[in-house]
Amino acid sequence: MKKISWVLTLGLLIGQNSAWSQQVAMVKWSDVQKILNQKSDTTYIVNFWATWCKPCIAELPSFEQVAQNYKDQNVRVLLISMDFAKELKTRVIPFVRQRKIKSRVWLLNEPDANSWIDKINSEWTGAIPATLIVNNNKNKKVFFEQKLEYSRLVKELTDFL
Amino acid sequence: MSNISTTMKNKFWLALVAVLALGTATTLFFQQKKAQASPSGYPIGATVADFKLQNVNGTSVSLSNYKDKKGVIVVFTCNHCPFAKAYEERIMGLDKKYASQNFPVLAINSNDGADYEEDSFDNMKKRASEKGYTFPYLQDITQAVAKAFGATRTPHVFILRNDGGKFTVQYIGTIDDNYQDPSSVTKRYVEDAVNNILTGKPVVVTQTKAVGCAIGWKDA
Question: Residue B68 and residue B122: Cα distance in Å, rounded?
Answer without folding.
Answer: 30
